[in-house]
Amino acid sequence: MIFWKNEQKVQKKQNRKLVKKAIFSTSLMMLLATGIVFAEGTNSVDTVYHVYVDGNHIGQVSDQTIVEEIIHTKLQNAEKKYEDIDLAIGENVEFLSELVFNPTYDNDSISQYLEENLTIKSPVTALKMGDNVVGYFENQEDAEKVIQDYQLKYVDQDTLDKIQAAKSARVESDGPQIVAPTTGKPADLAVGDAIILDVSLSEKVSFSDEKVDPNKVNTVKEGLKLLEKGTLEEEKHKVQEGEVLGSIASKYDLSLDTLLELNPKLKEDSLLQIGQEINVTEYKPFVDVVVNKEEKKKETIAYKTEIVESDELFKGDQKVTQEGSDGEKIVHYALELHNGKETKRDVLEETITKEVVNKVIVKGTKVIPSRGTGTLKWPTVGGYISSEQGYRWGSYHKGIDIARPSSRAILAADNGTVVFAGRQGSFGNKIEINHNNGMKTIYAHLSSIQVSVGQTVQQGTQIGIMGATGHATGIHLHFEVYKNGALQNPLKYLK
């Protein structure tokens, strides 16, 4: 591939003023006919000119200047419209001279034919990426400049110049090669540094000489836009939640009518399904600028959390036995980018500079039994019975009251399942535990509740704090016991 060299075409405009910009593409073939027999008498022999357009004979004229004048006039008129573009006749016009007796000519009809059928073209360089024509340019230098400007979107000028110089040196010494030279070893980089090793194109670039309508000739700026825009390709769009045909069309810069043409089975009011595939078209780049680079960077190694199960802790409980700390490493990467987007990343070297320490959490697996033992444990930390079960103040006292404990913690009297935990009338804050063996206990007047309905509790675990909520004369615990639905005297079961 030949790249643009930053040489200024200093004399271009001056030369255009000195020479005729239009280029005659006619191939004037003057072949004298042989074997002419001269008859006796006064008949004269004259030259006729057979005119051929793209190999087709269209007639004969008395003088080739008739054709040349038509060509000249067409080119001259076109020059007024296309001042800075080289022009030529699009067709191949040829002459064949012949000596004949008493010739006839088609000067007028041929002139009219040429006026109507000869076209004005511009000799250009076509820039191709693979099989796709990107655009047409006045010369190969302009086409190469387009390629360079496109590459400069992703690398700086200095880097591109160095890589191209290295490639040119290799071509001269070793013949054509595709990528920049490498030693097979990572580049010598400091931490935080990066280096671009190669810049290439994903498609083969080629140039060809063609003639096109002058209106199709592109400037370098126009060519860059064409290269950036790319070419239309058919795509499939999967419908997302909330999308309608109008929003899908806008996303791909299509009109609704165009979208419906691409999808004949759809109508403007069609109901779309999530995941449904819709035919769309989307611009894809003609070519990718492929950048190969290396970088060396410091990275954090995030610590992981290890979970260790233990039957020494109850299920739902956990404790941290080792705090985690991040490690550090120096990594040397090889990267490949297509049009600025990373498509590949390989690790060339990796050095750990600080070891990672994982966090260790021990989680309990011990299951709290939900069935009671039948023997009730004292539900407070110390304290005394301030009021026993029985009649008092004109009503029956269903439980016992326990006051003045050494701690206000309220404890589950036995294993069981919490079936009520909340505020209830004169009880105030109340907890009710079903011991799943026919027994049930009630804890009332709590200042706070530390369990929830459905929770399994173990005998002796804290379930709340003693208080004076509801109808209470002071801080104490009201404690009731039931067996198979019948009220029991708690003292019968308490140990």
What report would you give on this structure?
- With 495 residues, the chain is of the alpha+beta class.
- The chain folds into five domains: 12-118, no CATH class; 125-181 and 188-226, no CATH class; 231-284, LysM domain (Membrane-bound Lytic Murein Transglycosylase D, Chain A), CATH 3.10.350; 294-366, Resuscitation-promoting factor rpfb (Resuscitation-promoting factor rpfb fold, Single Sheet), CATH 2.20.230; 380-492, Glucose Permease (Domain IIA).
- It is 18% helix and 40% strand.
- The protein contains eight helices and 30 strands.
- The chain has helices at 12-18, 64-81, 107-117, 140-151, 157-174, 220-229, 245-251, 256-262, and strands at 45-53, 56-61, 88-89, 93-101, 120-129, 132-137, 194-201, 205-212, 231-238, 277-284, 289-301, 305-314, 318-322, 327-338, 341-354, 359-366, 380-381, 384-387, 390-392, 395-397, 400-403, 407-411, 416-424, 428-434, 439-446, 448-449, 456-457, 462-465, 477-483, 486-488.
- Strands 18, 21, 23, 24, 25, 27, 29 and 30 form an eight-stranded antiparallel beta sheet that branches. Strands 3, 5, 6 and 8 form a four-stranded antiparallel beta sheet that branches.
- A hairpin with a 2-residue loop joins strand 14 and strand 15 (341-354).
- Helix 2 packs parallel to helix 3 (107-117) and helix 4 packs across helix 6.
- The longest helix has 18 residues, at 64-81.
- The protein is elongated.
Blueprint (SSEs and pairs):
Elements: H1 12-18, E1 45-53, E2 56-61, H2 64-81, E3 88-89, E4 93-101, H3 107-117, E5 120-129, E6 132-137, H4 140-151, H5 157-174, E7 194-201, E8 205-212, H6 220-229, E9 231-238, H7 245-251, H8 256-262, E10 277-284, E11 289-301, E12 305-314, E13 318-322, E14 327-338, E15 341-354, E16 359-366, E17 380-381, E18 384-387, E19 390-392, E20 395-397, E21 400-403, E22 407-411, E23 416-424, E24 428-434, E25 439-446, E26 448-449, E27 456-457, E28 462-465, E29 477-483, E30 486-488
Helix pairs in contact: 2-3, 4-6
